[in-house]
Amino acid sequence: MNPAASSQVHARLRVFLAAARHLSFTRAGEELHITTGAVSQQIKLLEDWLGQRLFRRLPRRIELTDAGNRLLAAVDPAYAAVDLAIGRLRGGALSGVVRVRALPSFLATWVVPRLPKLMRQFPQIELQVEAEDSARSLRDGEFDLAIDLNDGTYPGFQSTVLLDEEIFPVCSPLLLQGRPPLAVPDDLCHYPLLHDMTAWRGSAPYAEWEGYLRAIGAPQVEVRRGYMFNRNHITMQCAIAGMGVAIARRTLITDELDSGRLVAPFRQAVRTGKRYCLVYSAGALSDPRVSTVHDWLLDEAVAAANTESHGRGERPSAPFGAGQP
User: Fold this and answer.
1) What is the DSSP secondary structure assignment for residue 114, as one 8-state letter?
2) I need a labelling partner for 83 at 20 to 30 A (CA). Which of 23, 114, 166, 266 fits?
3) Cα within 13 Å of Cα(111), Cβ side
4) pTM here?
5) Please, what sign has the CA dihedral across residues 33, 36, 38, 44?
6) Which of 2-11, 73-82, 155-164, 213-222 shows the lowest mean pLDDT across its residues?
7) Contacts by residues 215-219 (CB-CB < 8 Å, ≥ 24 positions apart)
8) Domains defined along the chain, listed by start
9) Could you please report the per-residue DSSP string of 142-186?
10) Which residues have CB under 8 Å from 272's CB, separation 6+?
11) Bridging pattern class, strands 246-249 and 158-170
12) How does pLDDT run across 232-287, given as a tens digit for each residue?
């Protein structure tokens, strides 16, 4: 097996373990912070590769097949032993504090749900976490690691790309009731709009909506109206409440679309050219505590991106600068 295929199999085995422990794709997705659909897709890919069914899909539950039980009996103790050994090997040099600064929406939606896993794996590391939005400048000495959304350029610092971002409009299905259809961008004139006015460092208040519409060739739509917020997760909660149409970030959407709390009226997503980056001072990664948290976050991002790409399939995506000027 080549290294790439081996990595994919190991990632799918982790998903299998979670589903087998819970006997629920939904609860496995909650543990792994991925959608139920993504869990189902990963299990199907593993079953196809093995040539055997691992779960019986029953009307309101799943159960392991004989093959699934045999695989669980072999894999579960093996992964537990590996995790324990890694933690013990690295634990001696990993005692102490790591200061992490992150954008509030990314922290609340993406980082915090994953922190229990970090705590279990590296119990001697103590995080000091600070939520700060992109309006505050990065200053050396204020953090060990920062998570920022920008184009990846950070003078005076080093950085590692964590995740690329793409955006698309969403709204509550309740908002569509009793209103004209929302089928094309020009139909937005019949709907209130919601804005994240600090979408990324230095962004203009209407940057996401204007960039999205320009990219899909609809710059004529007037978007300088509606409610404005300075946190993406607050904007999403207002969209769920039926207050208007908002711009969602692929990275920060969890199960809102699968559950039906939000719908995406236009199929096309747009790449913003902005990236979530880990930012740090030169030499910071020589501290094993900092490098451990850095590498752990990067591993989580790779796993999330791989699982999400399998779970949602292909979705048309245009660059932020596309469309007519």
Assistant:
1) G
2) 23
3) 24
4) 0.65
5) positive
6) 2-11
7) 215/270, 215/318, 215/319, 215/320, 215/321, 215/322, 215/323, 216/185, 216/266, 216/268, 216/270, 216/318, 216/322, 216/323, 217/322, 217/323, 217/324, 218/184, 218/185, 218/186, 218/323, 219/323, 219/324, 219/325
8) 3-91 (1.10.10.10), 99-163+275-311 (3.40.190.10), 165-273 (3.40.190.10)
9) S-SEEEEEESS--TTSEEEEEEEEEEEEEB-GGGGTTS----SGG
10) 165, 166, 167, 200, 208, 211, 320
11) antiparallel
12) 889 999 999 999 999 999 888 877 988 899 999 997 899 888 889 999 998 899 88
Residue 22 burial (CB count, 10 A)? 16
Q: What is the pLDDT of residues 40-56, one digit of tens each?
A: 999 999 999 999 999 99
The residue to which tokens 């299998």 are assigned: 16
Predicted pLDDT of residue 189: 94
d(CA 197, CA 207): 8
- Nearest Cα to Cα of residue 199 among 138, 249, 154, 240: 249
DSSP secondary structure of 24-81: -HHHHHHHHTS-HHHHHHHHHHHHHHHTS--EEE-SS-EEE-HHHHHHHHHHHHHHHH
317-319/194-196 β-pairing:
unpaired
| CA–CA separation, 324 and 303 (whole Å) | 36
What is the tens place of the pLDDT at every residue in 136-149? 677 777 899 999 98
- The pLDDT value given to residue 323: 41
- State the Cα–Cα distance between residues 277 and 239, nearest whole angstrom: 27
